[in-house]
Amino acid sequence: MTVTRPGRRPGNSGSRDRILEAARELFADNGFGETTIRAIATRAEVDAALVHHFFGTKHALFVAAIALPVDPDDVLAPVRAGPVDEIGPRLAAALLGVWESPHRDAIVAVFRTVIGGGGDVGLMRTFLLDIVFDEIVPRVDHPAGTGALRVELVASQMAGLMVTRYLLRLEPLASLPADRLVAIVGPTLQRYLTGDVG
Amino acid sequence: MTVTRPGRRPGNSGSRDRILEAARELFADNGFGETTIRAIATRAEVDAALVHHFFGTKHALFVAAIALPVDPDDVLAPVRAGPVDEIGPRLAAALLGVWESPHRDAIVAVFRTVIGGGGDVGLMRTFLLDIVFDEIVPRVDHPAGTGALRVELVASQMAGLMVTRYLLRLEPLASLPADRLVAIVGPTLQRYLTGDVG
């Protein structure tokens, strides 16, 4: 027997959607670290165990909530595995690797939606700050306190490539082989991460 | 006596709007150089003299069509006045100067609309390629054939600052004084323009 609430669709599909919606709202408003599975479950009016059942970890729930086709943890593995003085080129290669994959359209769509105002800027900010930057900032925080700015400068260069190469499709940039682009922007990223940023 | 066409609003305001609409369509489809005042007048069903009367030059019509609050010619004047080995910092300072001015909201709005899909990517491409890049590319085309890529790399860094500083408002980047930002990204732009890009 299924118990349904008035005004709610019954069944697992409705619960799953409510969890994703609640997760998007809370991650966007409060960031990743401050958002608990319990709070998401409460807002979605489900049991916390159901959230774990559907999504596993909070990290996996975030990836599902932002509708990313790949797990940032996997993408960033080669960056994590390398020395600090190679983060720039490794990061460029890792990101361009995903952007050149069959996932490109989905990623560009998320980006367009957020920038265009149809998506949630808070969610994108949480994604960048808490998921992508979080593990890199401490590694490049020299002198102390510069890490966040360094990583945001890197984000600015890579976001701009998303705009010019994939959205505006400016030629010849749009058709430049990815390895040539890594060779060109890698040193830029490396300077932002470990060079002098005033 | 005013002669009106069926289905058209009478008077100057209707003509002006039709001219702007025709201009947007033709600039987006055919680029700036290939679009004539005559063709715009024909599409708008007005006399070419009326286009000149309302907007003066084709350049001024383009600026009106894309709803830019400032004339790129004025913004780029300091870049034009300087030597090639200073284009990077001068360009960064010129663009950030406008973006930090009261025109910021209007410029960010145009950018958001185009990127989000509500505006015309073709029009933005025409604006960049034919209006902004056109005078810079020949100056940095060494070795011959590299000029367009160089300028597009510059565009990628500056577009990314638009995204991260003004749209996502990532801190501390969003609050960094403009002159410090020019000191940081200026050398990046200069390397793209006159350094080795493979």
TrEMBL record, chains A, B:
Gene3D superfamilies with a match to the protein in the record: Homeodomain-like (1.10.10.60), Tetracycline Repressor, domain 2 (1.10.357.10)
PROSITE patterns for this protein: HTH_TETR_2
Ranges annotated as DNA-binding: 36-55
Top-level taxon of the source organism: Bacteria
SUPFAM superfamilies in UniProt: Homeodomain-like, Tetracyclin repressor-like, C-terminal domain
Domain HTH tetR-type: 13-73
Keywords: DNA-binding
InterPro entries associated with the record: Homeodomain-like_sf, HTH-type_TetR-like_transc_reg, HTH_TetR, Tet_transcr_reg_TetR-rel_C_sf, TetR_C_16
Protein name according to UniProt: TetR/AcrR family transcriptional regulator
